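Reagents: none. Just compute today. NAD-dependent epimerase/dehydratase family protein.
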Amino acid sequence: MKFLVTGGTGFIGARVVANLWERKIPVIAADLNLNIEWTKDIAILKHQNDPSKIAEIQQQIDKTLFINLDVSDKLQVKEVFDQFPDITHVIHLAYLMSAEVEADQHRGVSVNMLGMINIFDMSVQHNLSRVVFASSETIYGANHSAYGDENYAVKEQDYCSLDDHFYTYGVMKMLNEFTAQKYVKNKGVSIAAMRPPIVYGDGRMRGSVLWACEFATNPALGKKVNLPFSKEARDCWIYVDDAAEQFVRLSLKPKLNHFAYNNGGHSVTAEELMQTVQNIVPDAQFEFDESVPRTSLVDRCDSSRLEEEIDFVPRSLEEGIRAQIEEARSRQKQINY
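Predicted 3D structure written out:
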């Protein structure tokens, strides 16, 4: 067994790679802009008080190949698989986020559409055991009102018309899923899509939702945070390490019962979110922007399908936020030291 993780040193990708190191599963981490030291730091920081565990993780790091890869380049992708014919699984996370897509539609299509097709083609040509890729809750559109009851948690079979979409990114994810199912049906390959909500944690460095890091990391470091929406804005949140665990478990399960899975998460208002932060950091300073009533995302996602499939329930919101705060502080101590 050998995994290829594209976007492997990114926000979620680095956590997936660290998760595979914990399991002692061989991995190739591929990224257009490699951030190798960051990825290593994530794995080691978690075990900073356990030298024997750090030694085990270091052994896995030493065996790992980090490669530059532009997934939009068909020849580059082919060369990776030709060079490493023992790749059995792919977790595909190389993607341009919504703001980057809107800024450069041509590049967005190249990476987000052609890049996905290049990976699907490799799944056929190299008979991969599984490809799992990151779809998104944005395929459900920009407003929960499209689903009627505000307390309704969207399910995988729910459909959103193009009229209710806001992000080009989300429509791209819809086409990714449509295309993947064509490959599954016509080529007999094993591909699954995961639909994460807002993924929070320390270390998010790009994209239009940097506040999904800053909301807890800033207070952890004694800094104020400004959230660009109302305190009444409701969203669904999942901790980054839990999302990584879901990706790995779904990849490893021999047979899947479905194609698409909601990652789930905790549905809270921005005010409830920051109250949770304040329970851990009493002097946390924050402001909301009441001129923006809500984010352009659905409010609740049902995760029962995935929980049943992989036998895993994400940690509580407070546990996730506490983990983020502790990591941010530990990293700051390292920098200061």
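The chain has one domain: 3-197+239-264+297-315.
Action item: order primers for follow-up constructs.
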